[in-house]
Amino acid sequence: MEIVVILFIALAIAAVAFGFWQNRKRRQELELIVQRHGWQLNPGKDSSFDDRYGEFSCLKRGSNRYANNILTGSSAGRAFCGFDYHYETTSTDSEGKTQTHHHSFSAVVVETSLPLEPLSIRSESFFDKIGGLFGFDDIDFESDEFSRTFHVKAPNRRWAYDVLHQETMEYLLHAPRFAIEFSGPRVMAQRDSLFKPTDFEAALDVVAGIVDRLPKSLLREMKASER
What we know:
The protein is an alpha+beta fold and about 230 residues long. It has one domain. It contains eight helices and six strands; from the N terminus they run H-E-H-E-E-E-H-H-E-H-H-E-H-H. Strands 1, 2, 3, 4, 5 and 6 form a six-stranded antiparallel β-sheet that branches. The longest helix has about 35 residues, at about 1-35. The chain is globular. The mean pLDDT is about 85.
């Protein structure tokens, strides 16, 4: 029995040490990236993100929510904030015991200074395809490949078609995959897992790739709407 206890304690210590090493390695890699671009890195916890960026529902999940490893700066001439995000959920088993589950993912939020309408773009999943059979469908496009690959939602379908024209669809088909969400002047790119450090750069490039391809006619409409 004593050997089992000793082994359990040793494994627990090893797990803590490994987690500490992983976090330290991640921050060192992030520091190299921010130095290369002239960005800033704050590794501390910030619990205000669910209010600061409350328009994005992924930041409202669960409890004990906070961001850390926060990157700030400018990319493609636009201010941004990148971060890792933590939240907790609980479940109860058949015996009434409650277990806490920790979840982490990463995201970037880019400020565009444009009056963007709501739009979400993410990879099509198996459950999306099943839902389509029962009428819970997303927006389909002329490109069959794009429609099979991505799940697109927007209250204004015309807006989605204007943003996702042929050139942008081709770009996204060959770009790294992120879930993209437009809300007001902000665009978020995220995954339901932690980014590799270089994924922050890739996410910013994808957002720029979409925003920089907005048609001039659409930009004129948005500027006119602000008058």
